[in-house]
Amino acid sequence: MFIVQVLLFIFVLAMIIWLLSSIAVVVHQGEVKVVESFGRFVRTLDPGLHFLIPILYTVRQRVSLKQVPLEIPPQSAITRDNVIVQIDEAIKYHVTDVRAFVYDNEDSVTAMIQDAQSNLRGIIGKMDLNEVLNGTEEINVALYESIKDITAGYGLAIDRINIGEILVSDEIINSMNKLITAS
């Protein structure tokens, strides 16, 4: 009889601990948590302590609102004068619309990267090699302007976009040096 009472006490204690841990939700500074009810978006929880009814409401995921730096691997682009260049870029972004970020797109960050890459190829394609090599600031501005409105639909805002290293094949560099020395 005593063992049954101890087991019952342990079970009740475990249920109380589970209930209290699933009722209280702590959200840290710089993030929000998405709340669903039976798979449907209800609201987001801002930083602080919140209480939810465990069976009716669940926390689907945590979303950081902090700025995120992202290095995009180098890609090839062809200039207007048919020179292939390798360009890498870096993006700093943050989430602005949690609902759109979580529910409207399967992978908002990948979509943003693909848009940045395709728009960069389009911008480079309208420039000569010399313009590309000397115009990284203009490329940064044009790229930012071309994708800032698109990414808003993903629930993201681009804070900054930078072109990194621009690499040209050794063959092209040698040709350019020969032209310079011949002049």
Strand order of the largest sheet: 3-2-5
Q: What is the overall number of helices?
A: 6
Structural class of the secondary elements?
Answer: alpha+beta
- Helix coverage percent of residues? 40-55%
**SSE arrangement, N to C:** HEEEEEEEHHHHEH
Coarse morphology: elongated
The number of distinct β-strands equals 8
What value does the average pLDDT take?
89
Low-confidence regions: none
The radius of gyration computed from the alpha-carbon positions, rounded to a whole number of angstroms, is 26 Å
| Amino- and carboxy-terminal Cα gap | 104 Å
How much β-strand is present in the residues?
Answer: 25-35%
Major β-sheet profile:
3 strands, antiparallel
Could you explain how this protein is built, in words?
- This protein is of the alpha+beta class and 183 residues long.
- 45% of the residues lie in helices and 35% in strands.
- The protein has helices at residues 2-23, 98-104, 108-125, 129-134, 136-152, 170-182, and strands at 24-27, 31-37, 40-45, 48-51, 58-64, 68-78, 84-95, 156-168.
- The chain has a three-stranded antiparallel beta sheet with strand order 3-2-5, with helices on one face. Strands 6-7-8 form a three-stranded antiparallel beta sheet. A two-stranded antiparallel sheet has the order 1-4.
- Strand 6 (68-78) and strand 7 (84-95) form a beta hairpin.
- The radius of gyration is 26 Å and the shape is elongated.
- The N and C termini lie far apart (104 Å).
